[in-house]
């Protein structure tokens, strides 16, 4: 069966994927040309988000739904700012976990937990989180291209709240989420490909106000919840030449007061 992590790896140009993942990725890209660029723009936001947080004193990160490691992972960006930064990754995909373990071998300030994000307590009590993160100090929580895989019936708002309530004031939440607000039939065709694939994971598109609600308990910083390519881009590499690919994914950062 195709997996989200491996299909996304294919979309980003990575090599950790199988024919079944590439077939879904190609069909999605065919339905919505340029989608790969939206994935790249999301990945560029990851770097800006981590740098934004380290510039505000954050030295520990929890990256939920971290995926198969590709260049410029959270620990690389953060530890480049300060080698003391500590990072815990979480993914439930065995391939993502295996590759993360390989990449992190020898780095005693980063680790991965294999878990379903819908079990915050298990994650927060894992030996990796207990060993690397001090939850009484602010944490940078990342949930990038992750919550649209969590359907409404799994209570995404409550889930984000359970993570948020475990974090100290001054913590940040960085979130990106696919939206249909600015897209037409193409996106419907792309989500139909996923529906028709045998993947157990399905996309829940959310509107601007639905994504903004996920920041409950966090105050969204400037420029607000905006298209990923509009969130403080620092150069051409942060945006897509296709305007709609800057807007397919909402991005925002909130601060817990
Ligand atoms: C599209 S990738 C995003 C990777 C990375 N966060 C980024 O933005 O570049 C989504 C990841 O979320 C993971 N994922 C999806 N649902 C999950 C869940 N319920 N628990 C843990 N991980 C999950 C998938 O395995 C996949 O690796």
Automatic annotation (TrEMBL):
<dbReference type="GO" id="GO:0008168">
    <property type="term" value="F:methyltransferase activity"/>
</dbReference>
<dbReference type="GO" id="GO:0032259">
    <property type="term" value="P:methylation"/>
</dbReference>
<dbReference type="InterPro" id="IPR029063">
    <property type="entry name" value="SAM-dependent_MTases_sf"/>
</dbReference>
<keyword id="KW-0808">Transferase</keyword>
<dbReference type="InterPro" id="IPR006764">
    <property type="entry name" value="SAM_dep_MeTrfase_SAV2177_type"/>
</dbReference>
<protein>
    <submittedName>
        <fullName>S-adenosyl methyltransferase</fullName>
    </submittedName>
</protein>
<keyword id="KW-0489">Methyltransferase</keyword>
<dbReference type="Pfam" id="PF04672">
    <property type="entry name" value="Methyltransf_19"/>
</dbReference>
